[in-house]
Amino acid sequence: MKSVLASLAALSGLMCAVPGVAHADSTSDYLTTLSSHHISYGNQDKIVHIGTTLCQELRNSLPGPEAVQRIQGLGYTSSQANVIAAAAVLAFCPDMNNDPL
């Protein structure tokens, strides 16, 4: 699991620069993060599904880099896929984030 976090750890500083939304739910936090990084998505339900699926894949021991590659396969750049993955971990599966900030 540490390899997942190592893959995403580089983005933790980037994610901390995103202004927080007080008392927002995890989906709102996730979508706000994507918007603040100018990541476009056509369908809100689909992009949320991408994030929650990533968490399921990580919990099922899929290596982080492979999970990010799957997101890239959906038409996102490497940078966008990394932001989507980091935002998903922070919003939907914070238990997977063992990175001590």
TrEMBL record:
Residues spanning the signal sequence: 1-24
Keyword line: Signal
Annotated DUF732 domain residues: 29-95
Domain of life assignment: Bacteria
Tagged with keyword Signal: yes
Cross-referenced Pfam families: DUF732
Stated name of the protein: DUF732 domain-containing protein
